Amino acid sequence: MSEGENMGRVGEIIETGAAILRSGPICDECLGRAFAKLGHGFSNGERGRSLRTILSMIGVSGRTGACWVCDGLFSRVEDFSARAVAAVEGVEYESYLFGVKLTARLRQMELFLGEKFPTGLAEPLKHAFNREMGKAFEARVGHGTLDLTHPHLSFIINLERDRIELRVLSLYIYGRYCKLVRGIPQTRWPCRLCQGKGCEACGFTGKQYSESVEEIAAAPFLTAAGAEKAHLHGAGREDIDARMLGTGRPFILEVLSPRRRTLDLSLLQEAVNIGSAGKVEVSGLHFVSRETVALVKETHAEKTYRARVCFESEVTPADLARALSSLVGTIHQRTPVRVSHRRADLVRERRLLDADGTLLAPREADLILRGEGGLYIKELISGDGGRTVPSLSERLGIASYVAELDVIDVTSESFPDF
Ligand SMILES: [Zn+2]
Ligand SMILES: [Zn+2]
After folding, report:
1. Ligand 2 centroid vs 190 CA: distance in angstroms?
2. Cα torsion 223, 226, 228, 234: sign
3. What is the reported pTM?
4. How far is ligand 2, taken at its centre, from the CA of residue 211, in Å?
5. How far apart are CA 102 and CA 126, in angstroms?
6. How far is ligand 2, taken at its centre, from the CA of residue 187, in Å?
């Protein structure tokens, strides 16, 4: 840019600045914001003050009073930052992010400023305010870094309600669990009668089952993290009456609003395993990101089962072997009757990858079955009244049913195991 052009530009800035000043009382932050893209290393306040000084030298001075654009918002930064600090007392964090919910009036005035004085150099009120909040907060607490994607603390300054809304990033811990006893659901199951409110039938616990893998695994974490709530996100789930053995099932424990984030996971693993009194065992715990939850939940892992199967009449070892090997392949399963109240009624195709068995008695066998994720084993054996085709009942010509079921392996390369 030539010197002449530069001088022309200075003239424009002075002119626009003077027009803004004449429009009503305005603070240095808002005046400076209108020219935020000019110069590096200045704050908007400094830009505004400099421009005001120059303008006053040529006889243009602004009116005094509350800023017509922000109504003195920037003078409240210190107050808000003090409140933000108080809100996170005792909370462990490394990073933060500020957001703001403007009042309708502020939104209007901001729009009006941009329309009336289109400098092409302005910084939006929200950006400027959030940045100033971050600076003031960091100055008070003496640590912390701005994080735009996964901040430990997310503050929203709600100006409409004059309050600070705080969200603390959950902790996400990946691991595998074994469920060594039958009769425990994977997650907390609200009482069917009261939907969790608490009634006589559930002994005012609000729960259908007195404990769950989720509650057993979460208890030591809640104490250690100073949190009140945790969710267990499993890579699928076994039936309540099935055990989960072998290397266990992948899960992510999400600890909500933790006050402490530095946790000794090997100590907590021990605490879960001792505290569960032989019911649940967790292993391989490590911290993961929030995105891993979707990965673990949506992975269709291959599963291996051990099933104790009973037959309505006697079966020979040869019949069993023939029936099992003929089952390997594609299975058509219409949504089982027992889950049809919560799953869409449709026919799924899932593959049975491997089937092996030992006859323990003429009417009883032990089977090892490996199948694609989503294959229903109880129905693969019983046939579910013709809804699963083929089935062991159909291939044997003898009604068969699962008496006991254990999941012994859950495998996928997608799982973030060590
Ligand atoms: Zn202002
Ligand atoms: Zn109840």
Report:
1. 8
2. negative
3. 0.88
4. 14
5. 8
6. 16
